[in-house]
Input
Amino acid sequence: MNNNLKLILNYLNEKRGFDFSGYRTPMIKRRAGKRLSASKCKDYDKYLHFIREHPDELDNLIDVLTINVSRFFRDSLSFEYIAKKILPVIIHEKKNSIDHWLRIWSTGCSMGEEPYTIAILINEIFEKEDFKLNLNIFATDIDSRALKRAKEAVYSFESIKDVKYRLLTKYFKTECESFRLIPEIKDVVTFAFYNMLEKKSYAPPESIYGDFDMVFCRNVLIYFKTEYQDLIFDKLYRTLAKHGYLVLGEAEKPSIKFQTHFKKVNECCHIYQKM
Output
């Protein structure tokens, strides 16, 4: 990696607490290059001077390095499988045990579409079963502006275009050209800043402890170098409850070091169970 690019990343970490050291170099170069062009800087050295003179540029750099691409029910097959095959089993087991808490963590949650989708699915099951567990859904990201948007829970059509009409009319209120999530769903998700490369903890402090029944880590690992993927998989393994489920993105799978720690639950989805 270019030394001046390293200096830029170090400056970003120093000023905003964003640690991109584990990210893949080609991705960093490609995305940072967009800001060089936009700011009319010819090289990283000039861009470093530019961001020191224009502190607001750090927000623009963070935006391109943490592209937030998400929508409700993204990868609908995985959510269908979770709703039909996994959640009913988890809920049935807890119904017949002394543990009546359902704990879920959504990492890299962007603007909240994923954790809110999970909350909607669970509410649908609770209504059909006429039985409710105590529900904790924790959602984390390193982009504070995305987290603020997530807490507002107001979305464009692009974010909700995969939502079935019945669910759309049930869980959203239309406001001009936007869609506002109802409080009953919005209020069950706790959002917090958390860096997956944080070495002092293996779960977000807000969750107090891990022991999650399910962790979503979709389209997060693809950005990281192999050694940092191992660090993240160690967190995911430790934070999952016994036989808990790990949901990955379509292009992701457990790293070589952790392949024996998880088993794939079916051939259609990238969903794994802790061994």
Q: What stands out?
A: The mean pLDDT is 92. The chain is about 45% helix and 20% strand.
